[in-house]
Amino acid sequence: MNINPHLPSEYINYLENPLEIIDEAEKAAEKDIWSLIQFTENLRCQHGKEPYSMEILLKKLYVRRMAADLGITRIYASGKMVGMETRMSKKVFRLITDSMASDMHRNSLVFEDGLIKAELLLELPRKQLLKWIFQCLAELYASLPALIKY
């Protein structure tokens, strides 16, 4: 998704080395979700609540990480439709979505030939679309433990 937030100059000036911090965030996201969560927590402990544009940047990293963990290789939007190309099987998709807590996201998702599609009620602005995708992936991600029987 083409969202490139610009960090406010006050926040950039407040950070000791903003490019290094962004690089650390990207490395944490490449490693695993827990590294990214820990990075976010450390950032907030050291510098307080991040500005909205940094939140958007972090949300993009969380979306990328969760998507990779779910086997989603590409996410795109076209009008009111969101498409997520995936390597998961239809059976795994059904098991995960059956375990989702929210009907809102579960009922909007359809699986067809390696593609998870969602028809939204209206075309959302990019930042709201990112928020919707983040929430949807977070619910799918949270459903993963339901696949494991103890």
Describe this structure in words.
The chain is of the alpha+beta class. 57% of the residues lie in helices and 15% in strands. The protein has seven helices and four strands. A four-stranded antiparallel β-sheet has the order 1-2-4-3. Strand 1 (72-78) and strand 2 form a beta hairpin. Helix 2 (18-31) runs antiparallel to helix 3. The longest helix is centred in the middle third of the chain and has 18 residues, at 52-69.
Features of this protein?
150 residues; alpha+beta; 7 helices; 4 strands; globular; hydrolase
First-to-last CA distance:
38 Å
Average pLDDT, rounded to a whole number, is 86
Number of strands: 4
> What can be said about the biggest beta sheet?
4 strands, antiparallel
| Helical segment count | 7
Arrangement of strands in the largest sheet: 1-2-4-3
Strand content: 5-15%
The best one-word shape is: globular
Oligomer class: single chain
* H/E element sequence: HHHHEEHHEEH
Radius of gyration: 17 Å
Structural class: alpha+beta
- pLDDT < 50 stretches: none
Helix amount: 55-70%
In short:
This protein has 150 residues and is of the alpha+beta class. The chain contains 7 helices and 4 strands.
SSE blueprint and pairings:
Blueprint: H1 9-14, H2 18-31, H3 33-47, H4 52-69, E1 72-78, E2 81-86, H5 90-98, H6 103-108, E3 109-112, E4 115-119, H7 126-142
Antiparallel strand pairs: 1-2, 2-4, 3-4
